[in-house]
Structures are given as structure tokens and as C-alpha cells.
Amino acid sequence: MELHQLLPDFRTESFKWIESMEGSLLHLEDTPSCYAAINNLFGTIHTLKESAGLFGLNEIVVLVGAMENVLVRVCEGEVPSNEHLVTLLLSCCDHMRTLIGQTSSDWIGRPPLEIATAENALLGQLEGYQGLLK
């Protein structure tokens, strides 16, 4: 079996992982110090990042890696978990859906320039959190 034949399964699983991440983020918004939610996020993010890497989906790997770096800072107490951060991470989840949707041959969505612009904006905001308290 060729790797590209597994792409539909990757899409299906990715959408489930994103839903799980969103649930953890919403829980984190209600309970900012909930380590169970953070641990779930780390596990899901790592799985998504590694899986996307297998398929050469670098945009997803970069975005998820930036999310992971911010969450490390949250765990270390260097970045507070607050409504703004949760909203940003939820926006990243929405954007990942778009990126994953692009892997489908029948996907009709936003033009590539618009997608790249949105991703650059999200990465810029995540980099702002990574730069805090260095």
C-alpha cells in the first residue's frame, strides 16, 4: 500500500484529533490550571504533528509545532492560560481543518494566498506568546 492511499484515513483521524483539542481547550478556558486538559492537548498535538509529517504536510507541522511550544510555556508557568490564548489556539484548530481539507482532491475552499496569509497571522500571534518572558 502506498502512503498516499492512507491520506483519507489521516483526514478522518485528524478531524477527530482537532475536535479533541477543541474540547481540551474549552475545558482549559474554564479551568486554566487543569493539567489533564494540557496533557490531552500535548498528546493530541504530538500525534497530529507526527502524522502530518509523514505525509509531508509541512504547514500543519509548523502550526502545530508553534502551538506545542506555547503550551510548553503555559506548563512552565511562563505564559498564562487565558481567554485570549484559548481563542488563538481555537483559531489554529479552525485553520488546521482548512489545511487538512486541502489534502482532498474534491476540496473547494479558500484560495492558497488567503490560506497562507491566515497562517502567517496565526504564527505571528503564537510567536508573540513564545517570546514572552524569555
In a few lines, what is going on in this structure?
By secondary structure, this protein is mainly alpha-helical. It is built from five helices and no strands. It has one domain: HPT domain (Four Helix Bundle (Hemerythrin (Met), subunit A)), CATH 1.20.120.160.
Describe what you observe in this structure:
With 134 residues, the protein is mainly alpha-helical. It has one domain (3-130): Up-down Bundle (Four Helix Bundle (Hemerythrin (Met), subunit A)), CATH 1.20.120. The chain has helices at 7-30, 35-54, 58-75, 83-101, 112-130. The longest helix has 24 residues, at 7-30. The N and C termini lie far apart (46 Å).
How many domain modules?
Answer: 1
Helical percentage: over 70%
The H-and-E topology, N to C, reads as: HHHHH
Biggest sheet architecture: none
- Overall mean pLDDT stands at 89
User: What general form does the structure show?
Assistant: globular
**Rg calc:** 15 Å
CATH superfamily: HPT domain
Number of helices: 5
Number of E-type strands: 0
Estimate the strand proportion: under 5%
| CATH architecture assignment name | Up-down Bundle
Question: What is the third-level CATH name, the topology?
Answer: Four Helix Bundle (Hemerythrin (Met), subunit A)
Class of secondary structure makeup:
mainly alpha
Distance, first to last CA: 46 Å
CATH class: Mainly Alpha
